[in-house]
Amino acid sequence: MPKKGAKRKKTRTHVVENETQASAVATEGELKVPRSLVVRARGAVEAEVIELVQDLRHIMMPYTAMNFQASAKLTKLSKSLQHYSKELSGTLGLTHIMSISQNESKLAMRLARTPAGPTLTFKIQQFSLSRNVRKVQRRPFDISAPAIANNPPIVVTNNFGDQTAAPHVKLMRITFQNMFPALNVATVKLRDCRRVVLFNFLRRQDDGTNANGQEIEDEEVEIRHYAVRATPVGITKKVRRIIQAKIPNLSKLEDISDWITGTTASGDPAPAASGAMSDSEAEDETSHVVLPQKYSGKGNSKAHKSALKLVELGPRLRIKLTKVERGLASGDVMYHSYVKKDLTEVKAKRAKIDQAAVLKKKRREEQEGNVRRKKEIADDKRDKKKQRRQERETAAMEELRGAAAAAEDSDSSNNSAMKELRGAAAMDSDSESE
After folding, report:
1. Which DSSP state fits 281?
2. Given 5, 15, 337, 425, which residue has the most CB atoms within 10 angstroms?
């Protein structure tokens, strides 16, 4: 704030012409952002499953609850999903719920769209945790960095087909895409594109068994999580390291030019400097791009050429769609990978479900009628009891009022008698004095 004379003068202000309209626009933009919740079903699970839930939350960052604690009272899965949808959809804008459950035979993942469904049930065939992925990497990426965690990832769906694909395949693709915010190519900032989530659909034509004797599944989805790393190219590796502030040990050299050129001033080969690691990934010309904007990392300036590389963050999952339900973990089954039914069986099942729903509604109405009738009887009994108590109180008050009136009459008669006696005594005293 500049100073004018002896006082400071405010020269810059933040004026909003219509605060209500600006707030409404911000609220509408926030409501369009999908928000997810990753939970673990109640029950005994392995320690790796608990860690897998946390890794999945890292994929869904930043629009997810990282430290969410599931309620201990909700033991049934369908009830827990409905409870979370009812409590969090309106207040926090929750759009998707991902639930991980385990039993003796399988590990399942349910992906539900709130508040009315559908619900996709997957069987987790294989998975690797993030720590296992980072353990085999030479230079693992730090996923806890704010620049990584504060921006949603780019969603890539591969091999899901076009409009002619099967309905359940199109539903999977749409569900995976809608779990993350949409990318606006016209307004997106390049420095915010730091992560990629890949959903790769696998189709196998031949049936058979693998080395372990297990049946090979026909359709599976692979999930991978990557970070984008950019390295400037078009310059030598040694100059690149200076730009990136990775200066090696130059104690054996007389001048920095000896390290860059590789020879001394006399023309002899310069001693090798320590710390000159290889950057072979930047030499792949197929990954070279000209940056339209400045990107994260030193040397990645606008209109300069850089090499892009994907560094896997984990976790890795291979899942298979087993069932699609119309509602939120309830309703009729729209697709099942193991149970196949013809049109007649589907109609019979649907009629049975409708009949059960009608019977349930009828029983609920009867129960509500019985509750209403019992309540009316109890209210009538309470009103009669209150009326009798009021009548007793009224009779008691009337009796008390009658007794009080009789006492007042007796007091007035006694006063009259006393006055008469006083008058007679006064007359006697007057006669005696005469």
Report:
1. G
2. 337
